[in-house]
């Protein structure tokens, strides 16, 4: 049972990762929630900044889900 | 350009904003690395710096400076998008980029005649500027000496010397940045012949201390640019490159494969059998492991491309192949973006910004995905390894290497044909006008840094994209579990199995089975994932713990040769990469081009795979 | 696309034959501007239509007639026939009735391998010729010595030239814009002539 739970959680995490990559707009409410919860608190300033950034997805970042390409001219 | 990163945030004491401007091949990028310490591409061919690059530095006296590295250009009369950026930033009219406080004009001392002209053109803008006389060490080797104080007096702007490629070579520049900003020079009267002015200044300031020598370029170019020997050299270089990808990498790959197998076995004994063990072993290790194995091949491919790039050979190859490109209606300039596309189509498409002619640029963008990018290598390597015997042909050639070479050749040939078809109505003149830079020994350190970065990018992809997709694939192929008393393999009842069976009618004419259909879907995110997806699908299907390392013999048993060749042909063409389509959208600014490229690539892939499958079946019976 | 005159030119009836080497078949009527000038400044311009491959352009006769008269009076001139299609392409033809008296302009693409020349000027093909402008910015300016380093495989296009310490790859159409100064002596006396060199650049001077 515990095994199934862990497996389910891992699979969900991976699915969320891909949802974030492909449709950042769909995960925006989640990040907005995090940002709201962390607002005016001193916990996890890094996470708060990230949540604030991701809560309003603006345009395409990088080149369509490829994050490495601007750094060094290559994503593969 | 749409790819603006926001300007650097102003710090408490507003930092000095300077911009590096100069001709291509003036050593600007190396100098930028010296100044800011940020590692980026140091290449030798004209127009590598197409992205906006900014960095910060602290001068010895503690002054904060932000440095902008502008794309190299020969003149402020821009003929390509990246030159237009330089022009607009220097004039201070670029949107979202305030005019720099100080222009640093980088001038290669070895090529003063050309570079001083552009420097004088910049000077005409009447902005505060500073001249960096770069590569003074190479100039002395050429037997020239420059009277720097005299030059400074003639130009009316401060001049400092630098050696961009040597540690501490930018010390003079750093010291100069601590002094107050020099006053803006008074422009020469309008209509002054800048070339004339350059000649006048050079006659006054440059002295020859010994005989002129440029022996290396002369000797090498005699062979490298020779109509016959040059072609042979080019062909041999490319051929060795593909042979090396297969033969040199083999021991490392065997080692990695064995290590992955051991890891799978070890984790298998560590965890109690059940869903979690299956996820880790069949999903994560089988998925990521099959892709990690290809790291040595990818690094060797990059090693070659980087070494060719840094040595200054690439523009020469563009020269040799210009006629071939012209027959496809393109110019040799398109060669460099296309060669970069062998590593990845994304930077290749981005580097098309150096092509002046808009139509040439569009066609180059459209055919860039046909170049066999490194992500296709794992797929090719897996299938070739499984179906092509590792025989020696004529004693020296490896048959597998030959097939790989043929696949690359097929892609290039198709690209030329496609370009030809697209350009059939085009009768404009296509300029080449390419600078052939001096030869340089590729720096081992910079090669190592570049390779390490490639390895890091590859591994981080394995860690993020491939592992997560493998987990999702595993879940899709494991759930829902087969009903009690089911007879067939479990995967037939799973979601993945169902999706595969739905797609099957479309791909059956190509000889694909439903496992391949399933693997095609995650392959859209990254081509190499198809390999790990196959591993997951087969290992779950076969319910064998260490199936990851046995994918090769498994495929050899389960597929016919026709299916394998058909899949190879499919992968030569298929528009299987979201990143490429996204970057096409960004660079062309139109969905139409995305639709055109996806459409024609899909059509080609389907058609050629269909033909390959049926012809192979006819031959093999 | 480039136009190339196919020798031999039949000068008796002033009919020129044009071989059209085009990127695709010339199936449509193309208007061509024929522009003829002699070194003494007589000029004539006319429009002609090219129909398809190798169609003789009859109109050429009318353009050349006044110049022909000049020729008959014994001035051996340098005649230049330039054909500008409505698209940007062109060719220069040396009409050569009295070879011994002709002093043809040598262009960069006519130089033999490993020989040098000095730039006289850059010829713009149109008022907004960006290629000619770029050539100037790359240092191809009057008075600058240039040296041919290599010719590309298959037909000698493109070519590599050295100017100062810089080497450039140019297509022949680009190099054709670079007009060289007359050399006092045979420039390639010391080096072997390049195989794809035609005879007229090394024509002896009277």
UniProtKB/TrEMBL annotation, chain A:
The protein's name in its UniProt record: Uncharacterized protein
Q: List the InterPro entries hit by this protein, alphabetically.
A: DUF6587
**Region Disordered: start and end of each range?**
56-76
* Superkingdom as given in the UniProt entry: Bacteria
* Pfam families in alphabetical order: DUF6587 (PF20228)
From TrEMBL, chain B:
Quick one: which residues bind Mg(2+)?
33, 36-37
Ligand binding (GTP): 22-29, 47-51, 69-72, 134-137
Topology relative to the lipid bilayer, per the entry, is: Multi-pass membrane protein
Please give the PROSITE patterns that the UniProt record associates with this protein. G_FEOB (PS51711)
Chief subcellular site?
Answer: membrane
Q: So which domain of life are we looking at?
A: Bacteria
Pfam families xrefs:
FeoB_C, FeoB_N, Gate
Output the InterPro entries linked to this UniProt entry.
Fe2_transport_prot-B, Fe2_transport_prot_B_C, FeoB_GTPase, G_FEOB_dom, Gate_dom, GTP-bd, P-loop_NTPase
Cellular component GO terms held in the UniProt record: plasma membrane
Task: Provide the protein's localization.
Answer: Cell inner membrane; Cell membrane
Domain FeoB-type G as annotated: residue spans: 15-183
Molecular function (GO) terms for this protein are: ferrous iron transmembrane transporter activity; GTP binding; metal ion binding
- Record's function text: Probable transporter of a GTP-driven Fe(2+) uptake system.
Please report which protein family the annotation says this sequence is part of: Belongs to the TRAFAC class TrmE-Era-EngA-EngB-Septin-like GTPase superfamily. FeoB GTPase (TC 9.A.8) family.
This one is known as Ferrous iron transport protein B
Automatic annotation (TrEMBL), chain C:
Alphabetized UniProt keyword annotations = Iron
SMART domains linked: FeoA
What's one Pfam family here?
Answer: FeoA
Could you state a single Gene Ontology molecular function term?
A: transition metal ion binding
Annotated Ferrous iron transporter FeoA-like domain ranges read 106-182
Q: Does the keyword Iron apply?
A: yes
Against InterPro entries, the record matches this protein to: Fe-transptr_FeoA-like, FeoA, FeoA_core_dom, Transcriptional_repressor_C
Q: Where are the transmembrane segments?
A: none
Identification of the protein by name: Fe2+ transport protein A FeoA
Q: Which organism is it from?
A: Acetobacter orientalis
- List the lineage, top down: Bacteria, Pseudomonadati, Pseudomonadota, Alphaproteobacteria, Acetobacterales
């Amino acid at each position: 049972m515990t095994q199934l739970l862990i497996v389910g959680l891992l699979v969900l995490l991976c699915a969320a990762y891909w949802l974030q990559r492909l449709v950042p707009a769909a995960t925006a409410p989640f990040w907005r929630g995090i940002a709201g919860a962390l607002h005016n608190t001193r916990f996890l300033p890094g996470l708060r900044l990230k949540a604030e950034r991701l809560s309003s997805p603006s345009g395409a970042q990088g080149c369509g889900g490829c994050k490495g390409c601007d750094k060094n001219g290559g994503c593969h | 350009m749409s790819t603006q990163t926001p300007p650097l945030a102003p710090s408490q004491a507003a930092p000095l904003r300077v911009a590096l401007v100069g001709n291509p091949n003036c050593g600007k990028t190396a100098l930028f690395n010296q100044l800011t310490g940020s590692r980026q591409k140091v290449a030798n061919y004209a127009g590598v710096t197409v992205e906006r690059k900014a960095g910060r530095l602290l001068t010895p006296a503690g002054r904060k400076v932000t440095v902008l590295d502008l794309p190299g250009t020969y003149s402020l009369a821009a003929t390509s998008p990246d030159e237009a950026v330089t022009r607009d930033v220097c004039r201070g009219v670029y949107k979202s980029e305030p005019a720099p406080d100080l222009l640093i004009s980088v001038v290669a001392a070895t090529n003063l005649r050309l570079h001083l002209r552009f420097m004088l053109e910049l000077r005409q803008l009447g902005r505060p500027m500073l001249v960096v006389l770069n590569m003074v060490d190479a100039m002395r080797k050429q037997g020239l000496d420059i009277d720097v104080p005299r030059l400074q007096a003639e130009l009316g702007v401060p001049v400092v010397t630098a050696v961009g490629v040597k540690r501490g070579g930018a010390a003079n520049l750093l010291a100069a940045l601590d002094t107050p900003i020099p006053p803006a020079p008074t422009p020469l009267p309008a209509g002054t012949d800048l070339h004339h002015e350059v000649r006048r200044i050079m006659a006054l300031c440059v002295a020859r201390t010994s005989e002129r020598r440029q022996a290396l370029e002369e000797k090498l170019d005699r062979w490298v640019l020779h109509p016959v020997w040059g072609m042979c050299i080019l062909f041999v270089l490319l051929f060795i490159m593909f042979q090396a990808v297969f033969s040199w990498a083999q021991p490392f790959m065997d080692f990695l494969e064995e290590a992955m197998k051991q890891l799978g076995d070890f984790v298998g004994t560590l965890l109690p059998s059940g869903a979690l063990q299956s996820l880790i072993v069949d999903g994560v290790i089988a998925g990521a492991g099959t892709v990690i194995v290809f790291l040595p091949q990818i690094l060797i491919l990059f090693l070659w491309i980087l070494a060719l790039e840094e040595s200054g050979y690439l523009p020469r190859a563009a020269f040799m192949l210009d006629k071939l490109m012209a027959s496809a209606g393109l110019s040799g300039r398109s060669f460099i973006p296309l060669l970069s596309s062998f590593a990845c189509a994304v930077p290749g498409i981005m580097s098309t910004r150096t092509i002046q002619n808009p139509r040439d640029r569009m066609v180059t963008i459209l055919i860039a995905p046909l170049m066999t990018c490194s992500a296709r290598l794992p797929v090719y390597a897996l299938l070739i390894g499984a179906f092509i015997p590792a025989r020696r042909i004529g004693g020296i050639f490896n048959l597998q290497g030959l097939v790989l070479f043929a696949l690359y050749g097929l892609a290039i040939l198709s690209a030329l044909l496609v370009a030809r078809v697209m350009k059939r109505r085009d009768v404009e003149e296509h300029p080449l006008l390419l600078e052939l830079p001096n030869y340089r020994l590729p720096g081992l350190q910079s090669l190592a840094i570049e390779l390490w970065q490639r390895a890091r990018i590859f591994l981080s992809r394995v860690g993020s994209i491939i592992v997560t997709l493998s987990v999702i694939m595993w879940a899709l192929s494991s759930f829902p579990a087969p009903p009690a008393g089911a007879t067939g393999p479990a995967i037939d009842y799973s979601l993945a199995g169902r999706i595969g069976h739905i797609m099957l009618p479309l791909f059956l004419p190509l000889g694909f089975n439903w496992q391949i259909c399933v693997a095609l879907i995650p392959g859209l995110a990254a081509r190499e994932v198809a390999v790990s997806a196959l591993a997951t699908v087969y290992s779950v299907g076969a319910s064998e713990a260490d199936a990851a390392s046995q994918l090769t013999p498994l495929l050899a048993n389960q597929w016919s040769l026709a299916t394998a060749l058909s899949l190879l042909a499919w992968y030569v063409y298929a528009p299987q990469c979201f990143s490429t389509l996204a970057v096409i959208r960004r660079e062309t600014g139109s969905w139409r081009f995305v639709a055109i490229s996806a459409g024609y690539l899909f059509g080609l892939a389907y058609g050629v795979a269909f033909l390959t499958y049926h012809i192979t079946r006819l031959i093999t019976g | 696309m480039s136009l190339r005159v196919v020798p031999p030119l039949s000068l008796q009836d002033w009919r020129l034959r044009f071989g059209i080497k085009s990127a695709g078949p010339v199936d449509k009527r193309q208007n061509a501007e024929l522009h003829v000038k002699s070194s003494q400044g007589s000029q004539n311009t006319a429009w002609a239509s090219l129909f398809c491959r190798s169609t003789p352009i009859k109109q050429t006769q009318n353009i050349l007639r006044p110049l022909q008269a000049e020729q008959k009076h014994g001035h051996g001139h340098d005649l230049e026939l330039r054909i500008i299609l409505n698209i940007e392409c062109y060719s220069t033809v040396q009409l050569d009735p009295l070879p011994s008296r002709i002093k043809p302009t040598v262009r960069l693409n006519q130089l033999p391998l490993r020989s040098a020349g000095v730039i006289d000027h850059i010829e713009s093909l149109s008022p907004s010729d960006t290629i000619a402008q770029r050539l100037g910015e790359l240092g191809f300016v009057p008075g600058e010595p240039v040296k041919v380093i290599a010719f590309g495989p298959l037909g000698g296009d493109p070519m590599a030239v050295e100017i100062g310490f810089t080497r450039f790859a140019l297509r022949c159409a680009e190099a054709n814009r670079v007009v060289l100064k007359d050399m006092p002596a045979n420039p390639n006396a010391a080096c072997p002539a390049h195989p794809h060199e035609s005879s007229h650049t090394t024509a002896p001077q009277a």
